Every structure is written in C-alpha cells, then in structure tokens.
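The protein record quoted for completeness.
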Amino acid sequence: MTINLLGAIEIRKIADDLKLFPKKSLGQNFVVDANTCQKIARSAEVGSTDHVVEIGPGIGSLTLALLERGAKVTALEIDNRLAARLPITLKEHGASNFQVIEADALNFRELSNSVNKLVANLPYNISVPVLLHFLECFPNIKSGIVMVQSEVAERLAALPGSKDYGAPSAKAAWWAKLELSDSISRKVFWPIPNVNSSLISFYRIEPVDRDERLRKATFKVIDLAFGKRRKMLRGALSELFRSSSAAESSLSAIGIKPTDRGESLSISDFVAIARLIPIGD
C-alpha cells in the first residue's frame, strides 16, 4: 500500500478533532510541509534496513516520511492525546511497520537493540539533554539527524576555539561527530516559531574510553571549565586539585596551559585532565 504524507490542512483538522493547540511548554511546533519531512528523512539516509527512533512525532508528518522510505519506526510521544491518535493516522495513510510508545524521552531507557538511527524534530526546550541522553543510553544508535533551534545546532557542532564552543559541544563529542546539515524555514511550522531552526547530523564514534567513571569525571571537568568561563583553567579547576597552584602544576604536567580557558580544549584534553582526578572525587 502506498504511504500518503500529511498536508497542512489535514494536520490542522486532526488537531481540531483532538481539541489540540500546540503547547509551548512541550516545545510543540509541528512541521506541516511534507517536502521538508521528506528532506529530513533523505538527509538522514534512512532506508529499508533501518530501525529509526523518532522523538516527539506529534501528528505524524515526519513519521510518515520515514516510513515512506521503508524504515521501521519507533515513535516516542509524551502527549497522551497524540500518542493515542498517531497509530490511527499512520494506518489511515498506508503505514504498518511502526510502534508508538507514550513516554517522556528524557526518562526513557528501554529501546530495541535493532534501533540504529535517531531522527527527530526535538522540542527546543529540552533538545540538548534529550540528544545527550540518547547518545549515552543507546550505543546501538549509530547516526541520525535532529532539528533544533539554530543557536543550539551551532553550539552542538562547534569546534574548540570557536565562539559557540561550550559544554554541549564537548559532551556530545564524547560520543559522536556532529555537523550542521541545513537550515529550515520558519514557515514550515505550525505555529510559526520565533526562532530559526537547523538540522544537525551526527555519526557515532568509538568513545575515548568505555569506563563510565571516566566519562562522569570528564563531564565534571567540562562543567567546571565552562561554568566559570571567564576564568583560566587553573582557577576554574582549582576545586578538583584542592588549590590553584596544584591545578597549575597538574595541567602543566600533561601539556595543557593553566592559563588557557575551557573553550580551547578538545574532548581529548578534557579526558586527559579527568584521568588526573582520584577515583571517587
């Protein structure tokens, strides 16, 4: 059976039937342009051998575009009205190879090992923690593409030394290589958001070390380095080494300038610093 995509008129009709108006509190901005949904699915290189997890499918525009390419889709929706209606909409439009789960993506931890891609229009207010959560908890997800606020996309894809580089950039780099993919017009959303949106693609890389204690220590270093962004590393990391002078000597010993700031360090540099922290700190 041919899969038919959703259009703007039908999306609004479904919303009316549900007595639904997109909630800002849930970051709901629905994509109402089928061509944009196809573009996202195509950019993610979704095919018939893929099992895609989609976060916040809403009324199902992107879900149908993913299914159209032959993929299996597991869709996670926090809104109970949308979660109940989505299977009906997908079946009415010729789709069958899907699962809809009513769940909060930030707390979700049970996903089939066959899932290998993440494709989503992420709610702006939780886009970074959701992406990091899925990279951390589901190593079987090897690649994907997400739509987020443009400023967030620029931060996630930023490289050391750039003005946008920060804690999200460094943490995401533990698991994946992220790249800006494309920009998305505000006009394809309902309601039209007040911010610009961009697509960011990611490809999983092997972590520097699979030791979870090292990852947590590394993220602690990252948080301290960027939590006190104006401070030099010897001051920002002084609590880890009990004093600024101890931080200075420790950093110098591994070839990192104590007078540098967090935005100049790569994920490998943060890992090197974390290795200096005694276990349990």
